[in-house]
Amino acid sequence: MTSVVIMAGGKGERFWPKSRINLPKQFLSLTDDGKSMIQHTVERVKSLVNIENIYVVTNEMYKNLVLKHVPDIPEENIIIEPAAKNTAPCIGLAAIHIAKKDINSKMIILPSDHLIKFNEIFIDTLKTALDVVEKGDNLATIGITPNYPETGYGYINFTKGESFKDSTNIYEVLRFVEKPNLEKAKEYLTSGQYLWNSGMFVWKASTILKNFKEYLPEIYEGLQKIGKSINTGKYEEVLKKEFLNLPSESIDYGIMEKAKNIYVIPGNFGWDDVGSWLSLERINKTNQDGNVITGNVISIKTKNTIIQGSDKLIATIGLEDIVVVDTDDVTLICHKNNTQEVKEIISNLRICNRNEYL
């Protein structure tokens, strides 16, 4: 059996003010086709697995949103996290649920808010990863072939090992590297021995649980208690008690940076993590002036600008390299160079207790 686990608990703060606590990024439509990020994520794996084998891990607040956006998913496949504890507890909780049905089930772990241009190539890449984990207690990850020196991603250093030496696109992972400065990123790009860390993983449920036991024993013990309570009347009670006590830990730092038998398959399928408002230029068509415009907009002498509105008229004159995002109660205006600083506005709103804008 193969299962797909979609992680959909994030807040998507860099897409404020459209992304809010009650409607985060994964439920927004940021492409011309009107589909939300999570709808794209589910649709692209339907050729690989049945909907009955697709799981979404999220928090209680977003359960109804998941059902609204993916109405054909079985409700029991929506796994609720009582609190945000980073990716390791999230993935571990999904593994415990899947292992309850089939301990040897292969698991594909995907973020809910990435976009992929070439779906057939993506599916072929996942199939290669599934072959890797079928042959023993291997962990596989999908690395993205970099085309510029990005400082906002972690990197994967790889080499051609002996285990899959006859395969042209399966490599051994030497190490995971934190986000580099620009100089290092240029070195990584030039060397040809580094890939971007996409946050997509493939393994068997049994394999990842063995790794939890070895490298994250505290989380493993909590997960085991939760697992024993599945399909009993005490599940909700045990889940809340045990999960809230788990340490917050990323799967990268907690397991992937320490584990053995890790392989990476380079991905060349038009991947975009849609990390900030600037992403809209990569995933949507620009007009003759280089603008990406949505809504009721008149733009004069405006170039290379992103404008996101709706019914209210937005008129611009003489803008260049600017981002304008208008919602019912908030208007964001910033230079393209400052889109990553949207989180600072959110921090200020929290400090000022202006939670109605979060």
UniProtKB/TrEMBL annotation:
Its EC number is 2.7.7.13. It comes from the Bacteria. One of its GO terms (biological process) is GDP-mannose biosynthetic process. Keywords: GTP-binding, Nucleotide-binding, Nucleotidyltransferase, Transferase. GO terms for molecular function: GTP binding; mannose-1-phosphate guanylyltransferase (GTP) activity. Pfam families: ManC_GMP_beta-helix, NTP_transferase. Residues 295-349 form the MannoseP isomerase/GMP-like beta-helix domain. It catalyses: alpha-D-mannose 1-phosphate + GTP + H(+) = GDP-alpha-D-mannose + diphosphate. Residues 4-287 form the Nucleotidyl transferase domain. CDD domains: GDP-M1P_Guanylyltransferase. It is an enzyme of class 2 (transferase). InterPro entries: GMPP_N, ManC/GMP-like_b-helix, Mannose-6P_isomerase_type2, NTP_transferase_dom, Nucleotide-diphossugar_trans. Belongs to the mannose-6-phosphate isomerase type 2 family. This is mannose-1-phosphate guanylyltransferase. The gene is manC1.
